[in-house]
Design a protein that fits this description.
By secondary structure, this protein is of the alpha/beta class. It is built from 13 helices and 14 strands. It has a domain of 228 residues: NAD(P)-binding Rossmann-like Domain (Rossmann fold). α2 links the parallel β2 and β3. Bound molecules: NADPH dihydro-nicotinamide-adenine-dinucleotide phosphate. NADPH dihydro-nicotinamide-adenine-dinucleotide phosphate binds next to α1 and β8.
């Protein structure tokens, strides 16, 4: 599909601007000529310095303060915007209090952003970053599509997944109300990896750093559906720009088992530089053994492992390819670039 001219002269609002995915969305928006207004919790923090690095950022980026937990916090941020990309949401697996730390910011924050959009009268479309978590919370061989909803998660089972499911459901219910004049489009990325524009390690890089620092000591029977962060960002921009974009878009490029990832790393020399996991727990007795170890991990990690160990992850990504024209990067290339980037930032080999 041919690139479009910018669809708005007004700034595009990106919530959670400093995040892993949002930083790439913002860089792509600059490259396409947009002005960007990003929300952060603390605009004076040095954590946002990388947002000003891309060409165009110096005079086309505005950062404003907004917290998902504060009432009416996004009123000023959405003012005069026509397009809002709502990415902000806590992305943590292990938390002290799932209701306070995950559900409240995800659900009330989404509601808060949508209410501000409604009051603005200027907003035409909201693109919400949902997740695989709102589609399924287990690897069970089922071929996941946009029609699937996660019905199993709860406060006591995979609460991060629960927070994303409730937040997306809240958004769909909100736009069904009478008098809502803007459209909602939802992006459901699977396991997002790839180079980071900022210095922080994203939650989804945890396994990759863990391969080199001993915190993932064995090869586990896990299969992931990966997608490159740059493709996730492109999906958001296309969903914003394409007039025909509608509904949910499952965004995943390809599956790899942990063993396949580690074989790829070894064949590209990573095993010479780091002590990669070599104990096999991905076959036979290894699977019940790893489940026994999983049972004594922190609650979020335990749930994740129990619902994914030994399973296979399947999906159908045809909607985003045919309707938005998204072309996915090669998964192996993304895995290798992820490792290069983590090393560049100094994240490998240390806990
Ligand atoms: P990051 O942790 O890098 O980004 C999360 C962003 O949310 C940060 O900018 C953070 O702001 C913001 N945020 C968290 N809590 C609050 C709050 N109370 N008020 C305001 N802002 C808040 O994660 P990702 O970039 O990976 O995630 C972005 C989105 O993508 C999330 O919605 C996540 O659920 C979703 N997602 C991620 C996947 C992945 O594999 N990475 C897969 C599927 C979906 P601050 O900088 O102030 O902390």
């Amino acid at each position: 599909m041919t690139p479009l001219e910018p669809v708005t002269d007004a700034p595009v609002l990106v919530t959670g601007a400093s995040g892993f995915i949002a930083s790439h969305i913002i860089a792509q928006l600059f490259a396409s000529g947009y002005r960007v207004r990003g929300t952060v919790r603390d605009p004076s923090s040095a954590r946002h310095a990388h947002l000003r690095a891309p060409v165009g950022a110096e005079d086309r980026l505005e950062l404003v303060t907004a917290d998902l937990l504060e009432a009416n916090a996004f009123d000023r941020a959405v003012k005069e915007c026509e397009y809002v990309l709502h990415t902000a949401s806590p992305y943590q697996i292990d938390v002290a209090d799932p209701q306070r730390d995950l559900i409240d910011p995800a659900v009330n924050g989404t509601l808060s952003v949508l209410e501000s959009c409604m009051r603005s009268r200027s907003v035409r479309k909201v693109v919400l970053t949902s997740s695989v978590a709102a589609i399924t919370d287990r690897a069970d061989g089922h071929v996941n599509t946009e029609a699937d909803w996660n019905t199993r998660s709860s406060l006591s089972r995979n609460p991060y997944y629960f927070s994303k499911t409730l937040a997306e459901q809240t958004a769909w219910s909100f736009v069904e109300k009478e008098g809502i004049e803007f459209q909602l489009v939802v992006i459901n990325p699977f396991y997002v990896i790839g180079p980071s524009l900022g210095p922080e390690v994203n939650t989804s890089h945890g396994f990759f750093t863990g391969f080199t620092n001993g915190s993932v000591p064995a090869i586990l029977a896990i299969e992931w559906a990966f997608v490159d962060v740059r493709d996730v960002a492109t999906a958001h921009v296309l969903a914003m720009e394409r007039p025909g974009a509608e509904g949910r878009y499952l965004v995943a490029a390809g599956t790899r088992t942990m063993r396949q990832v580690l074989d790829l790393l070894r064949s590209n020399g990573w095993g010479d530089r780091y002590k990669l996991p070599s104990i096999s727990l991905d076959r036979g007795i290894g699977i019940p053994l790893s489940k026994a170890v999983a049972a004594v991990q922190a609650r979020g990690t335990r749930d994740y492992l129990m619902t994914h160990l030994g399973g296979s992850m399947r999906f159908d990504n045809s909607k985003v390819k045919t309707e938005l024209g998204l072309v996915f990067r090669d998964v192996d290339q993304t895995i290798l670039e992820t490792m290069d980037d983590l090393e560049r930032w100094g994240h490998l080999g240390k806990k």
